[in-house]
Structure formats: structure tokens, C-alpha cells
Amino acid sequence: MDQAPVIIIGTGLAGYSLAREFRKLDKDTPLLLISRDDAHSYSKPMLSTGFTKQKTADELSMGDPGKMAAQLNASIRNFTEVDAIDTHNKQLGIRGESLPYSKLVLATGAQVNRLSFPGSDLARVVSINDLMDYRAFRTALKPNQHVLIMGAGLIGCEYANDLMIGGHRVTIVDPAKTALNGLVPEPAGQALQQGLQDAGASMLMGRYVSSLQEDGTSLCASLDDGTEIHADMVISAVGIKPDLQLAEAAGLVCDRGIVTNRALETSAADVYALGDCAQVDGHVMLYVLPLMSCARALAKTLSGERTEVHYGVMPVVTKTPACPVVVLPPMGKPGQWHFEGEGTHIKGLYQDGETLNGFVLTGDYASEKQALSKQAASFH
Ligand SMILES: Cc1cc2nc3c(=O)[nH]c(=O)nc-3n(C[C@H](O)[C@H](O)[C@H](O)COP(=O)(O)OP(=O)(O)OC[C@H]3O[C@@H](n4cnc5c(N)ncnc54)[C@H](O)[C@@H]3O)c2cc1C
């Protein structure tokens, strides 16, 4: 009987990084990647730098499934949604078809949060969370248009900066008091806000969109305070959360993400998870560096050497040239913030006595990233 393949569900950075790492260690075990999208390989962080780097959606693709299959000595099925996992019999379900696996990896990513209010489902209200979304957005967007962005988080602010570089007018609306709420402390959020404003953005903080309607060729957004904004397109960037549907239906233990230990093992034998969908040893980390570390560790495990993941210091960098922001979140560690600087240039250190447990740098201070990363206690 043919050997059942290792199957990876998902061809985002987590799925493809794992496949690459696995192939460095094991050239021959049958490998199958399955994706409900087009399975092009791309770097998701590049989606919010398309105008800055002058790349179209097609230019952001680093390989179609044919090229990736050849590179990875793997089979790749795109536009294929896995709809069931039978962990007892080690089989996947795809619209009635059963596929056996020897080991299974969930790299199913995160889904965008969607707001629900009158008009929130209009065609020109978009979320951009993969290359296909981005391609559709760039096709619909015409030169010099006005884009309303709901959400001043990392993704909303990055798209705002990039769109302005592309010659578009941008308005950001967010109910929070300052940008990057929840990721950085207020002084740093204010710095980014000021940087984006100086670059031309309208920042409407403490406000939210309560309805949207078509108004001739544009969209009219009504805010909670009665303000009306006319825009050509609306980007909804109100957060993402791990995609748990498939895992929960399969009976895998889930919390905020698919629960794994540091060896990326889920509650079912021979089933692993990594990337945006996973909650690794209690942490959901929706960033690239952690998933790269996980991919390296899991590749070893899949090749027969059970390996736990260990992270170094992993600062998050926003791609907002109007005011770069670097943050090493304290992740629940003890300490207090101390700030210096002003305007768009803010430096915050999160210290517990002599120990540096986090930092935030904006503007010119961003150049201190490496020096402070060295100082910061490693995240274990
Ligand atoms: C605009 C933007 C900018 C970002 N910038 C940064 C940055 O600067 N730095 C940083 O560290 N992070 C950044 N991030 C976050 C980072 O990109 C993500 O953490 C990372 O790409 C997640 O990769 P993933 O493979 O886990 O998930 P995804 O890329 O979401 O991949 C999930 C895959 O699973 C597939 N899938 C899901 N369910 C099924 C199913 N049932 N059947 C078949 N296939 C399925 C999907 O088709 C897809 O291929 C950014 C994110 C965005 C949106």
C-alpha cells in the first residue's frame, strides 16, 4: 500500500515555510498541501506595501502552485476546502472525498472580523487578508480615489500609509482613543497618528461608522456623531482571529486558537498546528517571526526528532514610513512604562527594575531596535 502523505492544510507563510523546512530534512516522504485559495506563494506583510514597493498583486506572487509543487517535491491542491477531519481514522474529508494522512498539520490562518451594520455588506466594503483579496482590491481601486479605512490597528495604518504613497486620499475611523490600541501604549499610538496626519490622512479617533449607503458614484458613511464621509471604497481592518471552525468540528481542543504545546502537538495524535491559527503554549501570535520558529521546530518533529519551539526577542515593526513604530510587547511580564521624546519621536521602555521586558520606539528612535532587542530579556 502507498504511504499516506504528510498533509499540510494551508499555503500561507506557515504552510509553505513548514514545507520548505521539512524538505531540507526529508526529501522523499510524500507531501500534500491543500488550500482553499489559489495557493500562490506570497508574503502577506507585503500586501500593505504594494504601492510603496511599486508592486502589483501579480508581482507579489512568488510562485504559482505548479512552481511550488516542483520546488517542494509535493502535490498541491488549490481551491480545495477541507471540510472534515477524522482524527481517529486519520482521514480528511473534502466534499465527500476521503484522504488518508500519516501526519496532519493545520496552518489554516486567521479570519478577518466583520462588522455588522446597515450597508456593511456593500460590494465596495472590503477586507484584504490574502493575495486574492488584494488583487480584487487593486483592480477595483482607481487612481486618486478616497479610501475610508475602518480600524487604526497595525493593518489599517499600514494600508493607510501605503495608499497615500500611491496617491490616494485616506480617512481612518476607529472607536479607540489612539492608533494601534492594544498593541502599543498611548504615547506611541499618538505619535503614529500624528505621523499619518502629517502625511495627509484624516484620523477620526473615538468614532465609528454606524451605516453606509451608496450615493451615486461614491459611498456615504455616517458616523456615530452624525458626521458624513464620502469615499470611493471602504477597507474594513477591524482585527483578525484564528480560524477554528475545522479544528473545533474535528474535536480538537481550542481556546483562542488551536491549542498546542511547544512541540506544536494538538490534542489529537499526529495532528499539529502552527501560524495564525495556533495557540502555542498559551500564546496566539499573529506575526511572521513566531511562525518561522515554529516551522523550523515542527519540520524536525515531522522528520522524526521531536522538537519544541523556542523564540528569541521578537519585536513587531509597522510598515508606516510616515512614522515607523517598533514594539516589543511585554506579554504579561511585570514592569512599568517610562517614556521620553515628543511628537512623532517617542521612546518607551518597559522595565522591571534593571530588566527590560518590553519597549516601543517611534520615528527616529526606531533605529534603536537592534540595540534594545539585544538588551531585552528573551521571551521563553
Ligand atoms: C496586511 C498585513 C500586513 C502584515 N504585516 C506583518 C508584518 O509586517 N510583520 C509580521 O510579523 N506580520 C504581519 N502580518 C501578519 C502575518 O502576515 C501573518 O501572521 C501570517 O501571514 C499568517 O500566515 P498563516 O500561514 O498562518 O495564515 P494565512 O496566510 O492566513 O494562511 C492560511 C491558509 O489556510 C488555508 N485554509 C484555511 N482553512 C482552510 C480549509 N478549511 N481548507 C483548505 N485550506 C484552508 C487558506 O486558504 C490559506 O492558504 C500582516 C498581516 C496582514 C494582513
Bound molecules: flavin-adenine dinucleotide
Query: Fraction of residues in helices?
Result: 10-25%
Q: Rounded to an integer, what's the Rg over CA atoms? A: 22 Å
Q: What structural class do helix, strand and pairing data support? A: alpha/beta
Distance from N terminus to C terminus (CA atoms, Å) equals 43 Å
Please count the beta strands (DSSP E, at least 2 residues each).
25
Give the uncertain stretches in residue-range form. none
Counting H and I runs of at least 4 residues, what is the number of helices?
9
Sheet with most strands: strand arrangement: 3-2-1-7-19
Strand % is 25-35%
**CATH second-level architecture of the largest domain:** 3-Layer(bba) Sandwich
Please name the defining characteristics of this protein.
380 residues, alpha/beta, FAD/NAD(P)-binding domain, Enolase-like, domain 1, 3 domains, five-stranded parallel β-sheet, 9 helices, 25 strands, 23% helix, globular, binds flavin-adenine dinucleotide
What does this entry look like structurally?
23% of the residues lie in helices and 29% in strands. The chain is an alpha/beta fold and 380 residues long. Helix 1 runs parallel beside helix 8. The chain has helices spanning 13-25, 57-60, 65-72, 131-140, 154-165, 186-198, 245-249, 288-302, 369-375; strands spanning 6-9, 31-34, 75-77, 84-86, 91-94, 97-100, 103-106, 110-112, 125-126, 146-150, 169-174, 202-205, 209-215, 218-223, 228-231, 233-236, 240-242, 258-260, 271-273, 278-280, 316-318, 325-328, 336-342, 345-352, 355-362. The chain has a five-stranded parallel sheet. A five-stranded parallel sheet has the order 9-16-10-11-12, with helices on one face. It has a five-stranded antiparallel sheet with strand order 21-22-25-24-23, sandwiched between helices. It starts with 5 loop residues before the first strand and ends in a 5-residue tail after the last helix. The protein has three domains: 6-111 and 241-302, FAD/NAD(P)-binding domain (3-Layer(bba) Sandwich), CATH 3.50.50.60; 114-236, FAD/NAD(P)-binding domain (3-Layer(bba) Sandwich); 324-375, 2-Layer Sandwich (Enolase-like, domain 1), CATH 3.30.390.120. The protein has nine helices and 25 strands. It binds flavin-adenine dinucleotide. The site of flavin-adenine dinucleotide has 34 residues, from helix 1, helix 5 and helix 8.
